[in-house]
TrEMBL record:
Annotated Low complexity bias: 24-34
GO molecular function, one term: GTP binding
One record GO biological process: negative regulation of autophagy
Protein name: GTP-binding protein
Leader sequence segment: none
Function of the molecule: GTPase involved in activation of the TORC1 signaling pathway, which promotes growth and represses autophagy in nutrient-rich conditions.
GO CC terms, sorted: fungal-type vacuole membrane; Gtr1-Gtr2 GTPase complex; nucleus
Length: 341
């Protein structure tokens, strides 16, 4: 583990600025914004979102994502009156210092042309006050479309949305709260925001090689989104391309069940170690750093399993340095004023 303990690899002694990113979650009322937010960040399962009401004006929440990144999430109500207010009286307040815009389209909207006009107005305001922000498009509720028509309808919608996006190059996703597509979209969005990602990925790869793993996944603690991953040549042959999102979904449901039967809060730590030993492979998920879990998939073998787990415990300190909260400092490149807005 010498490389992982090399202090020159990531100078923890150097103060790192706290990253604060303002994230706008927008879309017409009923498009599913609050439901997906509750599933990703509040440990809801899909059926529990039915009791959520409409968002009134802006629902602000601060989500700590890894030690050095805070998402200032603005869930903006989609009723016409609120949209008009965002674009007029609150225009500068809402659209200044935006790091990411996530815009949700309801695939079954009865007035998609009008939805596009609203989106076009939002993009114009974003271009005025936050021209360097990233834009992600979620074409939502895809489960309501007949399977053999989904791809064509989705592609048509995306082409129209891109035509109204001005200088922005939105990244689209087809999503539903009833499958793992929601985790895939949000994991990729968050992946682009995580500080120190290059260092995290470097050390994760070194750890995977040292313990002779087939695959190593680093999950964020509360949302269980995959922050980073590494796989060996054997692991790369896994034919299940959406396994990361499936894994996130399975673990979130496991935590839900544990919470229900133990009486612990949904956001609490329900487990610190989960082991699985089968004839073809071994797997463990361990509480890793303050803000992460680590999943390791290995070939079978008790000695290999125990050695890998011990080395992961040894590697914790290096990853804790990368994940450690920075000293308080205004990050001029992010949203130094967003938290006060």
């Amino acid at each position: 583990m010498d490389n992982l303990n090399d202090s020159t690899a990531s100078p923890a002694s150097e103060p790192r600025k706290q990253k604060k990113k303002k994230v706008l979650l927008m879309g017409k009322s009923g498009s599913g914004k609050s439901s997906m937010r509750s599933i990703i960040f509040s440990n809801y399962v899909a059926k529990d979102t039915r009791r959520l009401g409409a968002t009134i004006d802006v629902d602000l929440s601060s989500v700590k994502f890894l030690g050095n990144l805070t998402l200032n999430l603005w869930d903006c109500g989609g009723q016409d009156a609120f949209m008009e207010n965002y674009l007029s009286q609150q225009r500068q307040h809402v659209f200044s210092n935006v790091g990411v815009l996530i815009y949700v389209f309801d695939i079954e909207s009865r007035d998609f042309d009008r939805d596009l006009l609203t989106y076009r107005s939002i993009i114009a305001a974003l271009g005025q006050f936050s021209p360097t922000s990233s834009v992600y498009i979620l074409v939502h509720k895809m489960d309501l479309v007949v399977p053999n028509q989904r791809e064509d309808i989705y592609n048509d919608r995306v082409a129209l949305i891109r035509s109204k996006s001005d200088a922005f190059a939105p990244i689209p996703f087809a999503t539903s709260i009833w499958d793992q597509s929601l985790y895939k979209a949000w994991a990729e969005i968050i992946h682009d925001l995580v500080p120190n990602l290059d260092q995290i990925e470097k050390h994760l790869g070194e750890l995977g090689e040292m313990i002779e793993a087939e695959e190593v996944l680093l999950f964020e603690r509360s949302s269980f989104l995959v922050v980073s991953s590494w796989c060996s040549a054997i692991g790369a042959m896994n034919p299940t391309s959406d396994r990361f999102e499936r894994f996130s979904n399975i673990i979130k449901n496991f935590k839900q069940t544990t919470s229900r039967y133990t009486g612990t809060p949904k956001s609490a730590e329900q487990f610190s170690l989960l082991e699985m030993k089968l004839p073809n492979f071994s797997l463990f998920i361990v509480k890793f750093t303050t803000n992460t879990y680590l999943s390791v998939c290995l070939p079978p073998g008790e000695e290999r399993f125990n050695s890998a787990m011990e080395n992961c415990y040894i590697a914790r300190n290096k990853f804790e340095d990368l994940d450690a909260p920075a000293k308080k400092s205004a990050d001029r490149g992010a949203t130094s004023g967003a938290t006060e807005a």
